[in-house]
Amino acid sequence: MNPDFVTFDNDVEKNISFRKLDYDRDLTDVFLWMHQQHVIPFWQLNLPFSKFSRHLKDALDDRHQTLYIGEIDGHPMSYWEAYWVKEDVVEKCYEAEPFDQGIHLLIGDPQYLGRGYALPLLRAMVGFQFKRPETKKVVAEPDIRNEKMIHVFEKCGFEAVHPIELPDKTGLLMFCHRETFEKRWSHAGFYQEV
């Protein structure tokens, strides 16, 4: 299956790619990732297989978001939800512009934890989202308890705005403006496609 976006990351010297999630191919991997100890507290989707499979089908049918599998050198290892803020619960939390995009993510495969991949992956996805020329801002709302991920978002170019109450968590609303992102990363070609 061909990826939707591929970039070579100079920091980790590996190809990072994103492809749309395929239900039949990816259900088992994503199900297992949702049951990892580092994922459960923040996603709370450690459901029985039948319930999770229905949840994933519903998520795939939700037209305001696109689900992706992130790969490093072709190995599936992360799950992503790229969404349009205008049809998301987050749009009630600030004055959203029509082409604002948002992102949810997890590194599911434990062998990729603690190896410096989170920032390169996030940088690649945000670069992918900014390929839409009308998008001037990418939004994140990590769980306010997830200090490690908040730090990664900040390193990528996101700024904390304020805490927000969402149905499943207290999140920290964060913005990454196109100008900030491009100023920080374009000189190094970090998010250029292969």
Automatic annotation (TrEMBL):
Coiled coil: none annotated. Pfam families: Acetyltransf_8. Residues 16-179 form the N-acetyltransferase domain. Pathway: Siderophore biosynthesis. Keywords: Antibiotic resistance. SUPFAM superfamilies: Acyl-CoA N-acyltransferases (Nat). This is Lysine N-acyltransferase MbtK. The lineage of its organism: Bacteria, Bacillati, Bacillota, Bacilli, Bacillales.
